Structures are given as C-alpha cells and as structure tokens.
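[stage:ingest] chain + small molecule (calcium ion)
[stage:ingest] validated
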Amino acid sequence: MHGRRLATTEEIVALVTPNSDRALDRLESWASTNGVDLTVLDIAEDVTDDHYTEAPETLGVTIGGDGAFLEGVRAFAPREIPFMGINTGTLAFLARVKPSKTTDALTEVFRGRGSIHSRQQYHVTGADLDTTGINEVTVENVPPAEPHGSKVCKLHLFVDGEYVGEYFGSGLIVSTPTGSTGQALSNDGPVHYPNNNFTLQVVPYETHNVSATPIVVSQKSTVQVVPEGSVKVTVDGGREVVETGEDDVLTITGADQPAHVVRTSYDDPFMPALADKLGWGLRGVEDSGPAERLPDTDEEPDFLSAAVRVAREAARAAGEPLHELHGQVEQVEYKSDKADIVTEADYQSQRIVSTVIENEFPGHGIRSEEDLAVEGDPEYVWLVDPLDGTGNFAHGNPNYAISIALTDAEREPLVGVVYNPETDETFHAVRGGGAYQNGKPMAPTDRDRLDESMLLSGYDPEGEFLQRFYYDTQGVRRLGSAALHLAYVAAGSADAVWEYDTHPWDVAAGLLLVREAGGRVTDAAGDPYRLQLDARDTRTPLLGSNAALHDSLLEHL
Ligand code: IPD
Ligand code: CA
Ligand code: CA
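[stage:predict] done
[stage:export] tokens:
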C-alpha cells in the first residue's frame, strides 16, 4: 500500500487505552477541525464493519504503548486498514508518535506524505491454534506442579521438512522481524531492522546448549516444532496460551496478510529508540554521527524533480485500486457510444491523483478526463487520464495505464508519467532530463526501414492506417491505450504509433516520453504535435515514432 493513497482518507477509528485523555483530546480536536469522522473505541473492543465504511478510506490509530499497538495489529491488519500508534507508554518500538506530535503527524498522513510499511506477520497452527500474530510464538516447558519437577523440555525443529535438530532447554521462540526486539532479543536473538524485512527467526529460549544460535529463514519457509511431551505455547506475549497434547506439531510460517503500519517524519526513529531505551550506551545516538560523510540524500529537490516524484507516487497509489478491481468490473457507464465507457475505477483513480496533486501543488490547474477541472495558475496545468484503456480494463485485459503530465503556459509538457499497474511498469520523463522505464534510461529503436518495422495504431475508424501500412511493415498492432502506445515507442518495443484522434489527457505524458527518449511526435502534416485543450470539434491526429522512420511514415500516410 502506498502512503499517497492516504490522501483520500475520510475517517479514523481509534483504539484507546485508559488514561490517555490528553492524547485523545488532541486527536478529537484535530478530527473536528479537519472534518474527519472519528470513532473512538476502548482498546479491548472489537472493530466491526459498523465502525468504518471502506478500508482504504480509513486510518486506524492506537493510543497507548506497544501493547495497544499489538491490539491495533489484531484489529486492523485482517481488515487491511493502515494504522499508526501514538505512544503514551514508556518503552515502545512500535507506537512511535509522541502525543505532542499527534496533530503534525496526522496532517502529514492526510496529505498523503506519510509512508506505509508492510510488516511481516506469522501464522501458527497446531494444538488448537490457528492464528496470526506480529511478534512471536514462544514454545516452552509447562511450569512444573512441584518445585522439584522438570523445568526443561525437548523440542525437535524442522525447517521446510529438513531436520535441524533437538533443542533441550527452556524452549524456542519463533519471531518475526517486528518481534525481534521482544522476547527474542532477551534471549540473544539479533535485532532485525523491520522495514521490508520478510523473514522468520528461531531463537533458542534459555537453552541449556549455549552453542545453539538463532536461525533466520524466509517468510515462505515452514518452521515445524515437534515437542516431546506437553509444552506451553504463547502467542504474542499472551494473546493466546495453549498446552500441546500427545501428538501435536506446531507449524509456523509467514502470514499472507501483512500489517500496514503508517510512518511519518514525526515518528521516533528506530535506531535511537533501540539504543536509548535499551541503554546500549552507544555514542552519538543523540546526533546523527558523521552523517556528513554519507552521500547527501536530503538535498532540496528542484521543482521539476518534486513534480515528477509526486506524479509517480500518485500514479502508483491510484494503480492500487485499479489493480484490485481489475477483472471484476460490475458496472460501466456509457459516454458517447458503446465503446466509450467509464467505470467506478476511473473515478477512484481520478480522486486519488487529483487529491495528491492538489495537496502538493495547491495553486496549479488540473484537467482530468472524467469531468474534473481545477482552475489555477495557467502557468502550470496538470493533464490526467486516470485510466487510459478503460475498455481493456473492463474486459480484464492488462493493457491499461494511468497517465499524468504537468504542462507549462504553452501547454508543452514539463513532466510525464505513464504507469501500468498490471506489469508494474513506470515510464517517466522530465523536460530536458531524459526518459526512463522503471528508473532506467530508455530509447526508441533506430530502425529506418518500413519493411523491418512494427507499428501501433489507435482508433482508426476506416481502417485506413491498417490498409496503408499492414503489408509494407511487419505488422500493425492495436493495444487500446494511447498512453501505453507512446510509452512503448519511447521504450523501443514498437517503432511508431498513429492515433487518428487524440484527447490531450491521452497523450500529454506519452508525448514527453517519446520526445525525451529521442523520438519524434507530429501531427499528420509533420508539424510538432501540440496539445489542444479546448479543441472540442477539431480532430487532433498524432504520429509518434523513433524519429528515424518518421519521414517515410509521413510520406505514406
Ligand atoms: C482511449 C484509449 C484508446 C484510444 C481512444 C482513447 P480511454 O482512452 O486511449 O486507445 O484509441 O481514443 O479515448 O477512454 O480508455 O481513456
Ligand atoms: Ca484515454
Ligand atoms: Ca480514460
């Protein structure tokens, strides 16, 4: 999930521990000032469908310490609700926003400027357990009834069916990266930096064999613990506690469902929290050490770099609901004819992209295909096609894209982004700064012979382009997305494209992609193609190519 998607959040569900009145006051007053719906629940209450409308439009908040945060995982993760923890506790690695930073952090999140980190969870089955957790499963001896009774247990460990060996001692801890700062750490397990860390680790628990060290395995591995005799199994520090029976085997693997944790620039950073709170006594924790020797990543970005970054993030955030809805379109609306359709997905994507742009560039104008016009500084107008290739999308075909461009006062593109959520490909260009496919420079082909070329065409009502070029080339393809056509010519997977008619939002981004990659885009007469914002009754044809073929194509048109 992308932090930018939170720009369209409309409501908050808060799980609150007792004695958190001041932090809750701050949350309530922020929500009422900002017109955000707020539902406050006691930490022990279950979140149900009645408490929120739609997961991606809802932010979860916990107020309390890490215990409250763990309750947040239990309540929000299965519902895919991203959430953040306000820390009113003392020792917290998970809830990392100080109460005094609540309003700043929320404002950042609702502008879409926070980030969402997916945290690995585990799933454990066996001995009446079938549950998901985020910290650890502890397997240990059942405390003896008599003081002289045995305080150790024997466990056999298997990873992906391979026998690791017999552990004789107090037990074993199987933890996630998030859980690595909990019980695992107290038993000499390593600390895992939890961001984008998808692993499980097995840490011997007070083992009687000091040479046994922790093992780190992939989230996809299956860890199996076969006890000899009955053992006690504890999930996330006590959320569930069971004793195993005769032939029970515990099976632990990475859960399919991660917890979506929202992070802001107001969060206490992880490393100082670790070193400080655990009293590691590392020097330099207060400052950032000799950071000046590291390459500078905090350099103030110039306007165009900021614009292209925001456009890329907006496109990816809008791509999420499109990818989720792809192949399951239930309703289409017809615009001008049976092929001119719009779906709920077009509107959802448009809402995300336009909100992100408005938040980041408040004075700019926006024109987006589904009747959205934001008046602003004519110097900067964004042209957005929230879903180019709706016909493909509605039929479950993967050729569709989000197209976002920023244009200057002459309506020449400054920045262009085309993103295909199905292939996860991003094409972007900045005027004077080159064109890129997934961050790597791209270039069109250098073919200059028609009989060696492969062409693309858009709407071609009389089939004229097809007839003229089909036999003289290696083929003419129609993919159904003008934005992708241009991106493919820019990236060299086709040599040229012809569109009989274009809307500015279809091609504004692709135009810059082709030009910056080194290709050429003209009208049918060979003059540079110009975006026509208000040309309702005139047809705007487009010929884009690798440049080398352009004159031969024009001659043939
Ligand atoms: C359409 C597609 C199609 C092109 C049409 C466009 P939409 O956009 O780009 O390939 O031939 O002219 O309108 O309606 O899917 O956004
Ligand atoms: Ca379009
Ligand atoms: Ca569209």
